[in-house]
Amino acid sequence: MSHVVGRLAPTPSGYLHLGNARSFLLAWLWARHEQGRVVMRIEDIDQARCKPELREASLSELAWLGLDWDAGPHAGDPPGEYDQHTRFEFYRTHLTRLAEAGLAYPCTCTRKDIEEASSAPHGDEGAIYPGTCRGRWRGFEQARLESGITPAWRFLWDSEPVEFHDEVQGDITIDPSTLGDFVLWRRDNLPSYQLAVTVDDADQAVTQVLRGRDLISSTARQLALYEALELTPPRQWAHVPFIQDAAGRRMAKRDGDLALAHLRESGVDPARVLGLLAWSAGLLTELRPAQPADLVGEFDLKRIGRDDFAITAEHLAWLRG
C-alpha cells in the first residue's frame, strides 16, 4: 500500500481559473501516479474574503474536471473538518508551543512602521522585517498595554540557510535573513497561512506538495516551522510555473473569462480543459482532449519545464471547440 499523500488546497476567495486548475491537476496526477491518497483542504482562514458559495464552486469545478479526493469535503468526513476556519484552536496550541520555547515573540509594528524603518532592507516580497520587536517586550500583555496595539506574533527565525530539493526547480537554498521573522498570528486574531499550512500538512500526513513557484519562499518558512515544532515535513516538494494571460501577466482570480465557472457555463468540454492544461505542462505532445485517468500514466515531473505558459486567443478558440 502506498504511503503517498498529496493535497488540493483551494482558497475560496474567488473563482478558480486555469492557472489554479493546472496546479491542482498536477498535484492530483502526482499523487495518483504514485498510487497515493488525495486530501482536499479548504484554506479559508480569512473569512471576510472567503465565501461559502465560492467554496462549493471550487469543489464542484474540480469534480467537473474529473478530480476526486479521499478525505475532506464530500468525501464522508464530518462537515468542516478539513476547513481551516474550524481549526483555529488547534493552530493556537502550536503557537503556544513556539512561544513557550522562546521561538515566537509579540510584535506591535504596523506595515507602515516596517516600510519606514531605516534598517529595513527590501527583498522580492517588499520590506523585510528588521526585527524591531525582538526582545522588546516581556510578553504579549505588556506589549498590548504599553503600545495600545493588539500585537501580532512573529517567528524568531535564527537558523542556518534552509536547503531543500525541488522536483521541478532543482536544489534550493534560502537564507532566513533575506525573508526576516515572519508572522505566525495576525493582529486581527487570525493564524497566518504559514502556521496553518505547516500544522495541517503534518496533521494530515501529507508527503508531497505541488504548488506555484511563487510559494518557494513559503516552503523555506514552513520547513523552519516543522523543525521548530518537531513535526514531520512532506518528503517531496514541487513548485511549478504559472499560466499567464495573453498580455504575459500571471493569471489571477480577476480574470473572469478564464475562470472555470465561466468556461463550464459556456459549454466548454472539461476534457478540452484538461488537454490544454496537460499539454501546457508538457505532459502531452499534442493539443487534444484528455481524461484524468489517461493522464495518470503520462505523468512525469521531469516533463514539466520552468517557463511560464501564455494562453493565447488560439488556445481559447480551441477550448471552445
Structural descriptors:
single chain; 321 residues; alpha/beta; Rossmann fold; Glutamyl-tRNA Synthetase, domain 3; 2 domains; three-stranded antiparallel β-sheet; two-stranded parallel sheet; globular
Topology readout:
Blueprint: E1 5-8, H1 18-33, E2 37-40, H2 52-64, H3 88-100, E3 104-107, H4 111-116, E4 122-123, E5 126-127, H5 140-147, E6 152-155, E7 162-166, E8 170-174, E9 183-185, H6 193-203, E10 208-212, H7 216-229, E11 236-240, E12 243-244, H8 260-265, H9 270-280, H10 292-298, E13 309-310, H11 313-319
Parallel strand pairs: 1-2, 10-11, 12-13
Antiparallel strand pairs: 3-6, 4-5, 6-9, 7-8
Helix pairs in contact: 1-9, 1-10, 6-7
In words, what does this structure look like?
This protein is of the alpha/beta class. The protein folds into 2 domains: 5-85 and 241-319, Rossmann fold (3-Layer(aba) Sandwich), CATH 3.40.50.620; 88-195, Glutamyl-tRNA Synthetase, domain 3. Helices cover 35% and strands 15% of the residues. It contains 11 helices and 13 strands. It has helices at 18-33, 52-64, 88-100, 111-116, 140-147, 193-203, 216-229, 260-265, 270-280, 292-298, 313-319; strands at residues 5-8, 37-40, 104-107, 122-123, 126-127, 152-155, 162-166, 170-174, 183-185, 208-212, 236-240, 243-244, 309-310. Helix 6 crosses helix 7. It is globular and about 65 Å long. The two termini are 41 Å apart. The relative contact order is 0.16. The model has no long low-confidence stretch (mean pLDDT 93).
Q: What is the structure about, briefly put?
A:
The protein has helices at residues 18-33, 52-64, 88-100, 111-116, 140-147, 193-203, 216-229, 260-265, 270-280, 292-298, 313-319, and strands at residues 5-8, 37-40, 104-107, 122-123, 126-127, 152-155, 162-166, 170-174, 183-185, 208-212, 236-240, 243-244, 309-310. The chain is an alpha/beta fold.
